[in-house]
Write a structure and sequence with these properties.
heterodimer; A: mainly beta; six-stranded mixed β-sheet; four-stranded antiparallel β-sheet; about 50% strand; B: seven-stranded mixed β-sheet
Chain lengths: ~110, ~120
């Protein structure tokens, strides 16, 4: 099984940048790195994904190490609405996602 | 566009009973996956259906089963419920089945069904 490792929890002050790390040393050369987040009482929602190059979208940026064994999700300015559990995910066969334990992000006003 | 809907949202059953959960994917989506979320094990993949066929199955006992209908709606069934089956059951839909290692399909998750087994 494809595995990811993330810190259990992190804190950030509101309006400051947040860097959420993920290790995925068993990643294969064709695996996308996916990030989803789960707000309280909701299902996971898509944040960003990437393969080799760094990626940006309106929600976040994804920085991928050159050897692809780790990545970092960057929220440029954390807001209270960003408080959630963030999952770094590798995909198995078909559309099967391997979720790690996730990082619970607390945003301090 | 309506999102993924799951019914019921909450369910209480007793040990030994069986339960059926329903998932309606986003219109036009043909792939449906099911996940179990518990505090101890996190999110674990149950199975994936595409065009009424099970394509992948996670490491769960045979008490867990599912099916998909021609309109892409999916149901999962758990027979002979155990206390450990208490969990949030999440359904996710994708436009298509995976096209291979370098293909990408965003998955859209529903709000889940909270099952409590007493």
């Amino acid at each position: 099984d494809a595995k990811t490792t993330q810190p259990n929890s992190m804190e950030s002050n509101e309006e400051e940048p947040v860097h959420l790390p993920c290790n995925h040393s068993t990643i294969s050369g064709t695996d996308y790195i996916h990030w989803y987040r789960q707000l309280p009482s909701q299902g996971p929602e898509y944040v960003i994904h990437g393969l080799t190059s760094n990626v940006n979208n309106r929600m976040a940026s994804l920085a991928i190490a050159e050897d692809r064994k780790s990545s970092t999700l960057i929220l440029h300015r954390a807001t209270l609405r960003d408080a959630a559990v963030y999952y770094c995910i590798l995909r198995g066969t078909g559309n099967q996602f391997y979720f790690g334990t996730g990082t619970s992000l607390t945003v301090i006003p | 566009k309506a999102g993924v809907t799951q019914t019921p949202r909450y369910l209480i059953k007793t040990r030994g009973q069986q339960v059926t959960l329903s998932c309606s994917p986003i219109s036009g989506h043909r792939s449906v996956s099911w996940y179990q979320q518990t505090p101890g094990q996190g999110l674990q993949f149950l199975f994936e259906y595409f065009s009424e066929t099970q394509r992948n199955k996670g490491n769960f006992p045979g008490r867990f089963s599912g099916r998909q209908f021609s309109n892409s709606r999916s149901e999962m069934n758990v027979s002979t419920l155990e206390l450990g089956d208490s969990a949030l059951y999440l359904c996710a839909s994708s436009l298509t089945a995976s096209g291979g290692p370098l293909s990408y399909n965003e998955q859209f998750f529903g709000p889940g069904t909270r099952l409590t087994v007493l």
